[in-house]
Design goal:
Layout: E1 3-8, H1 13-29, E2 31-39, H2 50-81, E3 89-95, H3 98-109, E4 113-118, H4 124-129, H5 132-139, E5 143-148, E6 158-162, H6 170-183, E7 186-193, H7 201-211, E8 216-222, H8 226-236, E9 241-245, H9 251-256, H10 260-265, E10 272-275
Parallel strand pairs: 1-2, 1-4, 2-3, 4-5, 6-7, 6-9, 7-8, 9-10
Antiparallel strand pairs: 5-10
Helix pairs in contact: 1-2, 3-5
InterPro entries: Rossmann-like_a/b/a_fold (IPR014729), Universal_stress_UspA (IPR006015), UspA (IPR006016)
Protein name: Nucleotide-binding universal stress UspA family protein
Family: Belongs to the universal stress protein A family.
């Protein structure tokens, strides 16, 4: 079965920047890229809207189609500039909610990866409720790669996998192993241990048995500031991609707690790999 990468795009600079990563991965795993642009039909809030509703929809559909038709060649140009014009690229234009539509396509379409750009936080509301990118990271079961706006493409040479060395992290870790093999990259595993937590050396030793002769370093650092420790590690060790297992959270945790994955998405300039298992 052929591999597929879903690439949600709003044709922003952040999105176009992320497209290079989608093309490079598609080339490495011999996959096709399916771009999806989701737009919303405006809601009519005035009296007797029904008689104008069909016309409004027609104008919106036409406007989005024309914009879409103008923007698609820009994606092909990015492929040409990177000598990747042999990659098969298909395009989807649809109205609706981005996260919901991406979820529908990944649930039905057997995609291997979702890759998208993110602009980062621009308001307090986004800090608490998340951007489209972080919602996709949390809700979509397909492996998601989010590329920050200021991330300039570089070959993936080292992947940092944030872990607690728990059993439920082993399948996501195998996904990282596979991706590292695809890119010819090494892996650093990092467990950031709370000062009051027990030592994880035994679990770490069990993990070493999973990697055989692969190039993997296992690390543990004790401290309270998980975000700060992770960012410092990334900057000090020339990490080119950071991956993590996205744990399921209950409703109240999702609503009131900013997860580590969301924090990192707005403070680093390398791609983030979010894995559900």
């Amino acid at each position: 079965m052929s591999k597929k990468i879903l690439f949600p795009t709003d044709f922003s600079a952040a999105s176009k920047n992320a497209f290079t990563y989608a093309l490079k991965l598609a080339d490495a795993i011999q996959a096709e890229v399916v771009t999806i642009h989701v737009y919303q039909v405006p809601q009519a809030n005035f009296v007797n809207a029904a008689e104008y509703l069909h016309e409004m929809y027609d104008v919106t559909e036409l406007s989005n189609f024309e914009n879409y038709k103008d923007e698609v060649p820009a994606l092909r140009k990015i492929a040409d500039e990177n000598n990747l014009n042999h990659i098969k690229i298909n395009h989807v234009l649809i109205s609706g909610n981005l996260v919901q539509e991406v979820k529908k396509m990944t649930d039905l379409g057997d995609y291997d990866f979702v890759i998208m750009g993110t602009k980062g936080v621009t308001s307090l509301k986004e800090t608490f409720f998340g951007t489209n990118a972080t919602q996709v990271m949390n809700e979509i079961k397909t492996v998601v790669i989010v590329v920050p706006e200021n991330c300039v493409y570089q070959p993936v040479k080292k992947i940092l996998f944030l872990t607690q060395y728990k059993e439920e992290d082993t399948e996501p870790f195998k996904t990282v192993l596979s991706l590292a093999h695809t890119f010819g990259a090494s892996i650093d595993c990092l467990h950031i241990v709370n000062p009051d937590k027990k030592n994880v050396e035994n679990s770490k030793e069990q993990w070493k048995a999973l990697v055989e002769d692969k190039e993997v370093n296992f690390n543990s650092i004790t401290g309270d500031d998980k975000e700060g420790i992770a960012i410092e590690y990334i900057e000090s060790n020339q990490v080119s991609m950071v991956g993590m297992h996205v744990y399921h959270r209950n409703f109240f945790e999702k609503l009131f707690e900013i997860s580590l994955s969301k924090k990192l998405a707005f403070h680093i300039n390398i791609p983030i790999l979010a894995i559900h298992k």
